[in-house]
Amino acid sequence: MVELIRELAEYEREPDSAVVTEEDLLRDGFDTATPLFECLIAEWDSEPAGFAFFFTNYSTWHGRPGIHLEDLFVRAHLRRRGIGKSLLRAVAGKAATKGCTRLNWHVLDWNQPAIEFYQHLGAKILQDWRICRVSHEGIASLAEES
Question: Could you give the C-alpha distances from 60 to 57, 102, 118, 132, in angstroms and in order?
Fold first, then answer.
C-alpha cells in the first residue's frame, strides 16, 4: 500500500507530500475495532496493479452514509486494462451494500484523462464546489482560536 501511495504522489507531482508509513496504515486500518479506512488492491499477473482507498462519511441532507474515495490509482504500465473501472465498481458495490447515497472523490483539474474516465463512468464533476483544507499546524492554530 505504501509503495502504491508513493507512486500516486509522484504521479500527482507531490512526491515529498506522501509521508505515510506502514505503521500508520496498520494502526489506523487494521489494528482497530473501527478501521478508519478500507483499501482494495487490484492485481494483474500476481503484481499489485492499483488501489482504491476509501472511508465512510455521512450526509446530513440525506441522513444516510456515503463513501469518500480518497485515492484511486493504477500503475502507468497497467492502465487501459479495466483495472481502474473494476476498482471503482467495487467501491460502488460497497457503497450500495452500505445503503450509501453518495460516492464522492476529488480529481485534479489538470488530470484530463482521469476527468474523462470518471465522466465516462457517469460521474458528475461539481464545478461550483471548492475543496477547503486546514493542515498540520493550521489545525492546532484554528483550534486555539476558539
Answer: 10, 11, 25, 18
Q: Which of 40, 36, 6, 38 is nearest to 20 (CA)?
A: 6
- Of 123, 116, 128, residue with least CA distance to 102: 123
Residue appearing with cell numbers 496498520:
26
Q: Read off the pLDDT of residues 57-83 as tens digits, 9 standing for 90 and up.
A: 999 999 999 999 999 999 999 999 999
What is the 8-class DSSP label of residue 101?
Answer: S
Domain that residue 56 falls in: 2-144
**Annotated active-site residue in 118, 123, 129, 140:** 118
Burial 121-137 (b: 16+ CB within 10 A, else e): eeeeeeeeeeeeeeeee
Known active-site residue 58 = no
Count how many domains the chain has.
1
State pTM to two decimals.
0.92
